[in-house]
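in:
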């Protein structure tokens, strides 16, 4: 095992270990294609893409595991619960941006106060859009199954 795990760049004073996973080209290319690290994206588009993903996956747990899961309003309450959590998380993102970024002289536009505000607004819009899209899909699952798109068997 010692031949696979060694200090990063052969420097034992760096607090990072070079493992086959952390130094592989697959890991580097996968991480560089995530919206947070992808070059050429504006902070608004980064937030929109990240928000769509998070909003899409928030409706399901509230719908299936929430306190109203056995009622007729389980799906709409799951959507509203997701939107409530999204608003709370957007407020947390805004607070983080206010206390973390106070100057606008960074090369990465996401690391500035203006860029973080754009990221937060994109995240809010994307999250609500992703949650709404999940709601529309779940509420029309019977139609999707009968129209030949068998999503759940």
């Amino acid at each position: 095992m010692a031949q696979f795990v060694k200090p990063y760049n052969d420097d034992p004073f760096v607090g990072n270990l070079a493992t086959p996973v952390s130094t592989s080209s697959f890991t580097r290319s996968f991480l560089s294609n995530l919206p947070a690290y992808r070059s050429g994206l504006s902070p608004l588009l980064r937030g929109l893409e990240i928000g769509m993903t998070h909003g899409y996956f928030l409706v399901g747990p509230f719908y299936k595991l929430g306190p109203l899961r056995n009622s007729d309003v389980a799906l709409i309450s799951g959507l509203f619960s997701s939107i409530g959590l999204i608003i709370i998380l957007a407020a947390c993102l805004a607070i983080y941006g206010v206390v973390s970024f106070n100057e606008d002289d960074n090369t990465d536009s996401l690391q500035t106060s203006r860029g973080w505000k754009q990221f937060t607004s994109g995240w809010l819009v994307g999250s609500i859009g992703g949650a709404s899209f999940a709601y529309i899909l779940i509420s029309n699952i019977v139609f999707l199954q009968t129209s030949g798109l068998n999503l759940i068997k």
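note: The CA atoms of residues 10 and 18 lie 9 Å apart.
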